[in-house]
Amino acid sequence: MSPLTKLLVVFVTVMSVLLVALVVPYVAQTEDYASQITNLKSEATAARLSASLAEQEKSAVLAGDSEKSALHSQRITALTSEMNQLREQADQKSGEVLLGQRELNQLKAELSRLSAAAVQDANLLTLTTGDLKETRTSLVDSQTKLVQLGDRNNELESQRDSLNRQVRRIGEQMVSLEQDNIALRGSLARVPKKFRTDLSTGTEAQTPIESSVSIAGTVTIVDNSASGQLIQVDVGSKDGVEANMKFLVHRDDQYVGTFVVDRVESAIAAGRMTLSRGQVVAGDQIYTGPY
After folding, report:
1. So what CATH class is 208-291?
2. Which residues contact 259 (CB under 8 A, 6 or more apart)?
3. 21-61, pLDDT tens digit by residue?
């Protein structure tokens, strides 16, 4: 065999070895690439499916987000309106707070004025209390003096009543003396002059009596007859009245005359006027007894 042939054989052998070394990895790599392609196709299919699902999910999410966005918009609108109302209410409350603050300031000023007035009233009350104590003391003194004056007034009234009775008794005596004087003058005028110096007088008539106790009453009936005035009074034997008892007749403090009892019953008495300074009428008072 020629060297060229050997060289060619060697070259072919080497090339075969090289070709085998190159083809075997190539074939193996080619099979690997096919498997990878298959896997990639499967992954691509799964990816497309996932993408489709993701798109659907995205669409659903977008639809839900749209509804939520609409609800949120409505909620925002409602909240905005409510916020505006609250803002208006806040403004209104702020105005009320300002008014309340003004009223509070006015009340504080009024309280200060009332406090000052209360202090003045307290001072005035202190002064008034002192004056009241003095007035009370003065009132007690005045009441004591009033009681004393009342007692003195009662004493004076008693003295006045006694003096009035004395005046009426003196009036009676004056009238009696005047009538006796007139009667004596008439008698003396009828007696001869030469016998007047030897004349002595006397009477057989019964002398009227006076009560030892005070008896007072009122004239109830007056009868004017030719023989004189006959009267009836509202006191009788149960009051101590007796026949021939003498009473003074008076109208208030004025002496009217003298009444002598002729007839006595239990609750009434009647008699004649023996001395008279005026006309006796029903309602006049009668009295007998000590002054």
Report:
1. mainly beta
2. 231, 233, 246, 247, 248, 249, 271, 272, 273, 274, 280, 286
3. 776 676 666 667 677 778 888 887 887 887 888 788 878 77
Span 224-259, pLDDT tens digits: 877 778 999 999 999 999 999 999 999 988 889 998
Q: What gap in Å lies between CA 87 and CA 205, rounded to an integer?
A: 127
Q: What tokens does 157 get? A: 């009234």
Q: Which residue has the tokens 């009036």?
A: 171
